[in-house]
Amino acid sequence: MMVKEIEKNGMPVVHMVNMVPVSQGIGSNRIVKTYGISFPMNDPNVTPEEQKKQRYELVGRALKALNTSVTGPTLIS
User: At 13, is the pLDDT very low, low, confident or very high (cuts 50, 70, 90)?
Assistant: First the structure.
């Protein structure tokens, strides 16, 4: 996976996915669970304002994950 190759070169990567077991299986170090396959960054059934909040929260978790030291596949919540 591209995530592992980028990390081999010293750049931390956050893998944002909804299928966490697959990400863990390939060995992604920093994993943030998203909402779904068709709409990974937000729930399409909520208001646009709520969608914006959901995206903001996911990006915040991703930034937290980038600043987290890990030694193997880790789900950041």
Answer: very high
